[in-house]
Amino acid sequence: MAEDTLAPPRDHAARPDRRESRPWWRAEASRLAEVAALVGLVVTQPLLDVLGRSPDFFLFHRASRVDVLLLVALIALAPTALFALLGAVALLGALTLPAGRLTRAAVHTAIVGLLLAALAVQVGRHATPLRGVPLLVVAGVAGAAGAAAHRRWRAPRRVLRVAAAGPLVFVGLFLFASPASAVVLPRGEGGAAGVAGAGAHPPVVMIVLDELPLVSLLGPDGRIDAERYPNFAALAGGSTWYRNATGVSGWTPYALPAMLTGRYPERGAAPHYSQYPDNLFTALGGLYRIKAEESITRLCPPSRCEQATTPEQGLGVLVRESGKLMGRIAAPVDSRVDPEDSYRERTAAEAGLDAAEPVPADPKFRWDTLDDNQPARFTSFLAGLRPDPRPTLHFLHLLMPHSPWAYLPSGAHYAAPEDLPNDGPGWVDLARARHLAQLGYTDRLIGETLRTLRATGLYDKALVVVTADHGVSFRRDWQGRGMDAIDHAANEVAWVPMFVKEPGQRAGRVDDRNWEHVDLLPTIADETHMKVPWRMDGRSAKAAPRERADKRFYDRPGQPVTVTGGVPAPLSPVPVDPLVGTRVGDVPAGGSAMVANRDAFDAVDPAGGGLPALVWGTVPDDVPDGTRLAVAVNGTVGAVVPVVPPDVGGRRFAALLADDRLFAAGANRLDLYRVGDDGTLRRLTLS
Predict the structure, then answer these.
(1) Residue 336 contacts by C-beta under 8 Å, 6 or more apart in sequence?
(2) Is the predicted pLDDT of residue 592 greater than 60, yes or no?
(3) Compositional bias (Basic and acidic residues) at which positions (predicted)?
(4) What does the alpha-carbon distance between residue 539 and residue 36 come to, in Å, rounded to a whole number?
(5) Half-sphere exposure of 275 toward its Cβ, with a 13 Å CA cutoff?
(6) Cα–Cα dist 502/462, whole Å
């Protein structure tokens, strides 16, 4: 009999549930704690972990401390509040309906199962090769099993209630231990001021471009391609071109602080004045007026300069971009979207800025909208290029020609899918073509700068510096700027353009010394006769060249990688298909294709500064990979591209129509032709 008393009841359904014997408010508190714990694991921890390692996200959007704290509060509380609201509706039924308690328990179990399945998706994506539907199925099974275990046994419930403290821990780590904490809770600004020495203190005009390999500017003769990039060529013709110049990292939050402090990256820190108190802005700030347009850094402290407000700011954009990030984190497939592509320069029109300068008389530019399409940060910079009785530093870090690529050389912009691949057969060639087109527009911005400097009389007086923080590889299978790209295409990632025009300099010259970007601040200090009061790793161009020939590159701070090689040779030009530029008459029809943005050709508005210059879509499965397609606008072929295996969006081709002369105002005719092996064309029926 004693054994029967100690044995558990065989009829589990008849066993009294102690949870239901508690006061309803205690049961609800326990359920809320369990939901909070799971939300913390599914939403709060992964989102704050990524954001905490991305202070540049907050710096780019000029987020205030209040904005960041409100965002963190929303991430930590809003999802739990939504589930709590659902539970409250179920609770109302539990208190009023006969079977309400069973319904309330079922709703809570379903919520637990859903959150466990979402957690299983994230864990499975990192720990298994499963993706897509198979991962969703496995995650669904795991969620159902977890929900059943949660309902049947007390131990999982107890663990979740203890874990309810997790969101507070995750918030604390973000605020006090993550790299982003420097943005939210800066610990002073410090910074040593440079000491003015004997000699002139000329104005300094410094432009740092982004993701620009030197090889993209080179023509077949190894010089700047004056036909494609006349303004870069003009700059080289009147300055010293340090042709053997390299950046120190492929990531801007490491590369730019190294350039402005003269020190190699030694630790992973936010590109913020509290982490790098000694930099160009503090070195010159005691004497110089600072006009700085930074993008994803905040190295100029508030005591030296006020940051411009050209990027989209406020809690709204933080919430929107965080929501996109959460979607990528929770998705059962790997994201093909580069997070840094969210760093898109707003145009002057989007930011509501007045044009800095009237459009020059340039017959190649037909839209009269260059100023509208200018990046807003550039417009503000250009407007500030005026003589000043006080020595002035005019600084601009512009995310050009950095992706996302959206400009033709003329300045017209175009739309493109966010997840268009940048690597693989066909796609990497398209990526390079889009990069070069945007570089053509960047050349136009350099021309606007030189014209403004000459018009204001600053050109002869100023020290003008134009460079880029790093390059990018478009080599197939090694696209990007990480260590794989460095190992296989260092000539595209590390070597960058570096031009220094001294005050009064008119003749160009080439210097092939081993320049590394930590040499930038020492060189500026010498040119401006300022003494920098801290130790620097770089060497001024006024000093003897460094003896070693190899380079230091940092994929990770404190872990230098040696890169060898000298001035890179020009890349082999991409051959232009002989069909490009030809007129197409009547040809027989044969086959079909789907063009995703076909409707954009029905009402083209060149005066608005935009064109449907990127065409993408798919063809039937029986069309072999490698088949050539000719894309024509108004009867003229603008591009010839291969058919490729479908990407994640099902696209099998995409073509850039970089010549804006193909388009006319109003309705435009788009045609696609299948090119046979013998060069014959067959027109495809478009849908």
Answers:
(1) 419, 421, 647, 648
(2) yes
(3) 9-20
(4) 54
(5) 24
(6) 7
Model pLDDT, residue 107: 77
| Angle value at C-alpha 270, between 269 and 276, nearest 5 degrees | 75
Rounded distance between C-alpha atoms, residue 180 and residue 296, angstroms: 12
Closest of 130, 147, 170, 78 to residue 331, by C-alpha: 130
Portion of the chain with pLDDT greater than 90, in percent: 57
At 312, is the pLDDT very low, low, confident or very high (cuts 50, 70, 90)? low
Amino acid found at 551: K
Enclosing H/E stretch for 671: strand 670-675
Burial of 33 (0-12, 13-18, 19+ CB in 10 A): middle
Q: Which structure tokens are listed for 182?
A: 């420097």
pLDDT in tens, 95-129: 555 555 666 677 778 888 888 898 989 999 888 98
- Of 108-122, 330-344, 379-393, the one with minimum mean pLDDT is 330-344
Q: How distant, in Å, are the alpha carbons of 18, 29, 104, 151, 521 from that of 23?
A: 10, 10, 14, 19, 69
pTM summary value: 0.86
Residue 406 neighbours by CB distance under 10 Å = 21
What CA–CA distance (Å, rounded) separates 24 from 35?
17
- How far apart CA 634 and CA 643 sit, in angstroms, is 22
Q: Helix or strand or coil: residue 162?
A: helix
Could you tell me which residues come within 8 angstroms of residue 650 by beta carbon, excluding any fewer than 6 positions away? 618
Q: Using 50, 70 and 90 to split pLDDT, how confident is the model at 330?
A: confident
Bridging pattern class, strands 240-242 and 498-501: antiparallel
Locate 663 and state its tokens: 């388009």
Q: How much is the pLDDT for 13?
A: 40
65-96 vs 315-330: helix axis angle to the nearest 10? 60
pLDDT of residue 661: 92
Whole-angstrom distance, CA of residue 420 vs CA of residue 654: 9
**Residue where the block lists tokens 């960058």:** 496
- Find the distance separating the first CA and the last CA of the chain, reported in whole Å: 80
Token readout for 583 is: 């007129």
Q: Of 367, 188, 432, 396, which Cα lies nearest the Cα of 293?
A: 396
Closest CA to 53 of 257, 290, 339: 339
User: What three-state secondary structure class fits 580?
Assistant: coil
Q: What phi, psi does 516 have (nearest 5°)? A: -120, 150
What is the Cα 212 distance to its own chain's centre?
Answer: 14
Q: Tokens for 88?
A: 């409250």
Instruction: Read off the pLDDT band of 1 (50, 70, 90).
Output: very low
Inter-residue contact 143 to 117 (CB < 8 Å): yes
Could you give the C-alpha distances from 12 to 9, 15, 61, 98, in angstroms and in order?
Answer: 6, 5, 56, 22
How far from the centroid of its chain's Cα atoms is residue 627's Cα? 33
Q: How high is the mean pLDDT of the chain?
A: 87
Whether 74 and 319 have beta carbons less than 8 Å apart is answered as yes
- Look-up: residue for tokens 């959007």? 61
